[in-house]
Amino acid sequence: MRRALLIGLVIIVSGCSTLALNLWDDLYGISDPTRFDHPLPSTTLSYQHDVKPILDQRCVVCHACYDAPCQLKLTAYEGIARGASTKYIYASSRLLATEPTRLFHDAQSTSDWRAQGFFPVLNERSNTAEANIKASVMAQLLLQKQAHPLPETDVLPPTFDFQLHRDQQCTNIENYSAYREDYPLWGMPYGLPALSQAEHNTLIKWLEAGSPYEPPAPISASLQDQIELWESFFNQDSLKAQLMSRYMFEHLYLAHLYFEDSSNPVFFELVRSHTPAPKPIDLISTRRPYDDPETERVYYRLRVHKETPVAKTHMPYRLDAVRMDKWRQWFLSDDYEVTSLPGYTLETASNPFITFQDIPSYARYRFMLEEAQYTIMSYIKGPVCRGQVALNVINDHFWVTFVHPKHQTAELSTTFLKENANLLKLPAKDSSSAGLLNWISYSRNEQKFVEAKTKYLNEHVDKQFKVTLDLLWDGDGENDNAALTIYRHFDSATVIKGLHGGKPQTAWVISYPLLERIHYLLVAGFDVFGNVGHQLNTRIYMDFLRMEGEFHFLTLLPKEARQPVRNHWYRGSTDTVKDYIYDYAKAYHGDTSIVYTSQDPLQELYIKLQDKLAPVLNTDHSPARGFEAGPIRALLSDLDNISGIPASLLPQTSVLALHDKNGRTEYYTLLSNSAFTNISHLLGDQDRRLPQEDTVVVAYGLVGSYPNVLLSVETDQLAAFVNSVSTLENDADYVELLDEYAVRRSSPRFWRFSDELHQAYQQANPISFGYLDYNRLDNR
Predict the structure, then answer these.
(1) CB of 383 within 8 A of CB of 526?
(2) Mutual angle of helices 559-569 and 575-586, in 10-degree steps
(3) What is the pTM of this model?
(4) Domain-by-domain residue ranges, the chain?
(5) Using an 8 Å Cβ cutoff, are 126 and 160 in contact?
(6) Is residue 139 within 8 Å of 207, Cβ to Cβ?
(7) 686 - beta bridge partners?
(8) 468 neighbors 594 (Cβ within 8 angstroms)
(9) What is the CATH number of domain 630-764?
(10) How many CB atoms lie within 10 A of CB 238?
(11) pLDDT 10s digits, 613-651
């Protein structure tokens, strides 16, 4: 009986869907997905000048990257034409990998996207004004918002669901009437104020006209010259040059490349093509950058990046004559030979120490070091927009420095790396549908590699080099990539140049093999569309790599100080983890040659690091920037020193707009860094929380891509604001703080604040600017 009822229900639902589809076909004709492959030209309305700015400022702030609701990406016209999908990318429990759905990569037409399950949000039926509005999900959701604006209340009702892993309601036009009836307040923009009447009218007029589009202006002759120059560089015929270009592609394929500083930069992507210049690009699209291109010769081409830049994925990377000269020197002038090119079998292609063993490790390391912020940032921004699985393996606040490439330690010994290359296999060799227990073999390999490296160190420390701060890269006296600070914000993170935030929770020293493995683990080899085994293996392997970076740092301390620091960093860890860390360090017999004079060598080492790297430390985010007045700086310093329970009650990322009476506004970011007994476990974060050790960091400018709260404070209110933060005791106190200073997502002045924020951000940082993402805004 149950089975019969279920079958009957399915038949009824299917029948209703078919009936609804037939109704729309009768009213407005058969849907034609090819309609927007060749969109109507713009006439009275310009997409680029009238429509796109509204979409960027009001829609892209929620609809970008993989975590765009319903995969509806509004960062490009092609994303709007592609439409939406009910497929949920962040399904961490899936047993098998799913097919990737990367815009501009995994399909080249709307018909192809329809075959992959995407449905239209624009009208694809007959091109009439009535059909373009009534048969468009996008138009209907905008009209719904005008008919049902937000309730006039500070905190929106629980009928709005802002949970990160909420069930998304992805409606097509056939089911839209049911959506509107069930969720009348869920018009677009979702959970934010409606567009202004002028903005609404512009978008409706554009949709009514059939969503016309004109491409952006063609690139200039000078940019075309640069494209030809660099494509010529990337596509030289020698085997040495071809291997170099493959290496560079596997590290730069996520970069947004540009040629010159400009208030309106044009960005490019490095892609693989079947065709050389000057022929049109025939894209080679694979799941990973090192997957088999299935062509006799790969050509590396520069393709214009068409999407609106957003902070969570934008990684600018400059190409200029100085950089080309360095690359020629490192990769093409050294005395080494390449007699054959490596293949693309997964076992070897996923291991850069095998694939690129002919290229001197010094060249590879210098390449990654030169733009170390980009290299580290690509771990965080590149493969994912929601990286909790990977990011709960790092602390909320830590510093990163690098082994100097001039020291031929085990890390840069070509012979050592070749001998141990097979121990450096990465989880990606098991493809995107991996078993859950594969990490055990990686653990054994990692231990063997550490043993080999430790043996090398024991044999060479004090004989060939001493453990001093001279082992650390100083940026050659001019490169501010030598020191980085990383902040984790739950499931996202930010990398900034310099050593910021006072005493960090931990610190790493990164060597070449460690830097390379993290890239091939979390960037080149990570698949957001992979299964649970792939993601679990990636997370556990990253545990090993974090410990390795921490071990390098601890070797700078006196031998007797290392274990107490390790104990503090790994309070409450299981014996297995502790043994792993202890064995790691016990086998190394060397002592530091750094002279310590205090009873707190760890804090002394942090100070020595700052002194050593002072000539190249970047201070762009120092809270001393912005307002120069002494009282304001003193109050910001007080805010920066808040810790404990008040810090724990703040969200992880708050944007603070500070206004003075003369109309000047400076923006700061308040970061709440959560403390844990340890981060060596995948689950149970809350059981390991230490809120009494949480800290607040004040950074000048914008840090982070996902603000949780927007704050607006007058300078003559700053003392009261700092006092309110420092005396927070519970959630009720925090809500009172919001009542006084927050620009909530429900505020009538929300969009004005947002526009001013983005305008200031873009004016101050035209190259690195990207729109913030509002999917993490609190509703409190």
Answers:
(1) yes
(2) 160
(3) 0.93
(4) 31-208, 218-344, 372-556+593-618, 630-764
(5) no
(6) yes
(7) none
(8) yes
(9) 3.30.1050
(10) 10
(11) 999 999 999 999 999 889 999 999 999 999 999 999 999
